């Protein structure tokens, strides 16, 4: 059994981790922390977990966390980087669901997150945890930076085109839409149902903090700097991300070959589903599941390839991918605890 600690367990990603780990046959949650809710039984806050966990939230205790095999951080940005060095010294493995270790250029990180980075040596050594790209490095990693939700859907959608060099890497467009749970569980007026319902808007159009992470991942796939325009949108649903991606072909490749390119790239990936060309993946088809579904489109007499990519922002975009990374790190079947199909309706 893998002894698990979760730091910051009261948010949506924390409870999603608990939901997944409750049925994971090789994971045992030893502790789950929350400074604000210390002493409160987990099942009192999240009644869906009654009968699955007898734990109560506790204050973060480095000594207790050091007794775990792996610790998940489901905390606001800036928390993990202060606690991780001590856990690393104790030999604990970590999957960080915040952005603290995702971006390698720490000046860029500080500019977007508004604080200096406090663990630069570990930022340099962290493995970016997109299993479809870095599986071998994840197996050996002590610290894995779990990708963000938008970056997951966007990178998976663009990867085959960039890896094959078939598109102009300087002219990529990512149009993303997310449900309200992507903003977290904090009480914010802008996230109230009366504010979000019956409305649809763009945000962060002048620049969003996921942009440098997206840029970094796509540049690695392309083997060169990329130019990407990313605009996120808030839609009136609880969970789910849809990313519509646009890229300009630089060759005369026929559309059938592009479809084959995607099918070949993801043939052995358990959590990426390339749908038939012309399909329109729906967010409800991945709700509660660790899958990314995508489909290719190309309009008549156009050199623009359109990729539509959907994930559940709390699962493949957060907690599910974190458990997938844990499975890889400990040499388990990568799908363990993650085989449940999506919820419909």
TrEMBL record:
Keywords from the named record: Amino-acid biosynthesis, Arginine biosynthesis, Cytoplasm, NADP, Oxidoreductase
SMART domains xrefs: Semialdhyde_dh
Enzyme Commission identifier(s): 1.2.1.38
PROSITE patterns on file: ARGC
Enzyme class: oxidoreductase
Catalytic activity as recorded in UniProt: N-acetyl-L-glutamate 5-semialdehyde + phosphate + NADP(+) = N-acetyl-L-glutamyl 5-phosphate + NADPH + H(+)
Keyword Transmembrane appears in the UniProt entry: no
Start and end residues of each Semialdehyde dehydrogenase NAD-binding domain: 3-141
Domain of life: Bacteria
Chief location: cytoplasm
Molecular function via GO: N-acetyl-gamma-glutamyl-phosphate reductase activity; NAD binding; NADP+ binding
One Pfam family per UniProt: Semialdhyde_dhC_1
GO cellular component labels: cytoplasm
Xref: NCBIfam families: argC
Family, as annotated: Belongs to the NAGSA dehydrogenase family. Type 1 subfamily.
Known role: Catalyzes the NADPH-dependent reduction of N-acetyl-5-glutamyl phosphate to yield N-acetyl-L-glutamate 5-semialdehyde.
Record protein name field: N-acetyl-gamma-glutamyl-phosphate reductase
Natural source organism: Marinobacter persicus
């Amino acid at each position: 059994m893998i002894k698990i600690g979760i730091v910051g367990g009261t948010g949506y990603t924390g409870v999603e981790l608990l939901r997944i780990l409750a049925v994971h046959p090789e994971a045992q949650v030893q502790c789950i922390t929350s400074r604000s809710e210390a002493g409160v039984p987990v099942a009192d806050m999240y009644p869906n977990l009654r009968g699955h966990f007898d734990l109560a939230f506790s204050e973060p205790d480095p000594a207790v966390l050091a007794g775990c095999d792996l610790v998940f951080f489901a905390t606001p940005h800036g928390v993990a980087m202060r606690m991780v060095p001590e856990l690393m010294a104790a030999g604990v493995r970590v999957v960080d669901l915040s952005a603290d270790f995702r971006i390698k250029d720490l000046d860029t990180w500080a500019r977007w997150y508004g604080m200096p980075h406090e663990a630069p040596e570990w930022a340099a050594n962290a493995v970016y945890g997109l299993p479809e790209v870095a599986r071998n490095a994840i197996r050996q990693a002590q610290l894995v930076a779990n990708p963000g939700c938008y970056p997951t859907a966007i990178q998976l959608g663009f990867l085959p085109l960039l890896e094959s060099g078939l598109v102009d890497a300087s002219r990529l467009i990512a149009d993303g839409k997310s449900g309200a749970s992507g903003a977290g569980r904090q009480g914010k007026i802008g996230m109230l149902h009366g504010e979000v319902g019956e409305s649809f808007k763009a945000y962060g159009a002048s620049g969003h903090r996921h942009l440098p992470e997206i840029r970094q991942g796509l540049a690695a796939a392309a083997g060169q700097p990329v130019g990407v325009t990313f605009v996120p949108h808030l839609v009136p649903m609880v969970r789910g991300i849809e990313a519509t991606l646009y890229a300009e072909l630089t060759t005369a490749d026929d559309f059938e070959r592009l479809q084959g390119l995607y099918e070949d790239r993801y043939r052995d990936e358990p959590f990426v589903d390339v749908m038939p060309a012309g399909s329109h993946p729906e967010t409800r088809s991945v709700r509660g599941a660790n899958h990314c579904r995508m489909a290719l489109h190309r309009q008549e007499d156009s050199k623009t390839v359109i990729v539509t990519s959907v994930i559940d922002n709390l699962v493949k975009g957060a907690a599910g991918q974190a458990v997938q990374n844990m499975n890889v790190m400990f040499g388990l079947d990568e799908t363990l605890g993650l085989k449940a199909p999506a919820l419909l309706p």
